[in-house]
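In the current project phase, we have settled on a layout for protein records. A sample record is reproduced below.
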Amino acid sequence: MTLHYAGIAELADAAEPPAVAVVIDVLRAFTVAAQAFAQGAERIVLAESLDQALALRERHPDWVALKDGAPAPGFDAVNSPGLLRSIPLAGRTVVQKTTAGTVGALAVRDAGLVLCASFAVADATARLLRERPSSPVTFVITGDDGTAPEDRACAEYIARRTADPAADPAPYLRRAARSPAAADLAEGLRRGYRGVHPDDVPLCLQADRYPFAMAAAPVDGLLVLRPQGV
């Protein structure tokens, strides 16, 4: 299997979309997405903008809209796995807009297969990749212009797990725990920022929590994420 690691900006210059794109956002978008599915969400619409997310929420009052940062009018939740636990999601559609993960997924929406991943669904993602051994895989590192250590560590763990189903996640989790993004969340807690929960980093650094991968595909002009392999 041929592997390539790229930031979002690099993908803009690509001659053609990847055959398989694995979009990584550990802290916190695709940990939140995985938890939403674990709480019973039916699907997640990856919004292109905050305005689009609000418009979709207004058009569909039973949907749940979430965003990065502090709570805001019109949004039901924030991009925090710790805080998401209090939101009833069974059977519902979630609209998600973040600064990195959703942007990365939309950047590769024309790929043959788009998987969104974090440590929470790493093993299930690797299982799907093993079913396509001849397909080149592009790992999209969404954080810090393609340099986020936690996203790169997760991508490398998925790649390793694809080759070796018994691969140990511990070294990769240690790298992610030392990342600037993890430190920023800890600093946010100390400063009392809204939109951050004490369990966010621990939840994001639990490997292989869920038995499903997450695949995104266009539906009626929207990019829709669903669990795969449940």
